[in-house]
Design goal:
Layout (H helix, E strand, L loop, with lengths): L17 H12 L30 E9 L4 H4 L4 E6 L12 H4 L5 E3 L1 H13 L5 E4 L5 H13 L6 E5 L5 H6 L6 E4 L6 H8 L4 H16 L3 E2 L5 E5 L1 E4 L8 H12 L5 E4 L20 H13 L5 E3 L6
Parallel strand pairs: 2-4, 4-5, 5-6, 6-8, 9-10, 10-11
Antiparallel strand pairs: 1-2, 1-3, 7-8
Length: 313
Amino acid sequence: MSGSSAPVQNASRSIRDPDVIRERAGQLYQRLNPCRLCPRVCKVDRPAGKTGYCKLDARLKIFSTNLHYGEEPPISGISGSGTVFFSGCNLQCVYCQNFAFSHGDNGEIISPSELADRMLILQKRGAININWVTPTPQVAPAVEALAIARERGLTIPLVYNSSGYELLEILQLLEGIVDVYLPDAKYADSNQAGKYSDAPDYPAINRAALQEMFRQVGPLETNADDQAIRGLLIRHLVLPDDIAGSKETLRFIAEQISTDIPVSVMRQYFPAHHAHEWPEMSRGITWEEYHDVLHYFDTLGFTSAYIQQWDDD
């Protein structure tokens, strides 16, 4: 049975009550010692200053907060997405484009209250949502900050923008708190995931996470201004030599989740970070590679997609 014919089970409703959000933050904080916030399950004592795979202790570390206009149209809208770039990451992608703060030590230690104020400033500047980028290792203080911000008047939706490498029990604690899930679906093959992101369990973890996200929020919903207010939008980056296993990933989404999910099929790969150390990753993708993926995508019956125009580079 294809996912598109299965009933959508939207168990959650948006939670705006600061006390409920704060309670969830408390449950997430309990998983910081030993740390069990992501599939790495490092089990280090982060409140005591120990750092896990993500290179973070329990303090909130932010690289930047600003309006961002480069996301998919329903995420950025016209006035921009209120983006919070979190430092650290639970993957080590050799081609990471955000390596300066995802893999490096760049960022500023701030309190949850300070992050709440910054999110409120983004709302005041016209942001159509708050967009948490790679929040997974810091989800406990981030949710605390959200509780404070909701208490102080934050009303816009929350976007959870992640690598898709998530524990189910953490996602379940986010049910009703996250309005829009914006995850990656990076790999179909465990060998490739291990080689290029140090996560051989990524395909299995990611697929379970995508299904849980869909269970919570269903397909993407937009308002009268075509702005995302709830739902799931999946991103897939096409890699050289089909390293990502694009067709298999797209087939999984269509057959096991739903063809009503919008998929962003991205062609923006370039050899950043350590990619030049891998000959097969030392080039961008070709028009033929991208076109082949898009052609296959069209055969699967998806109802919507976001694609990137091909420009001669």
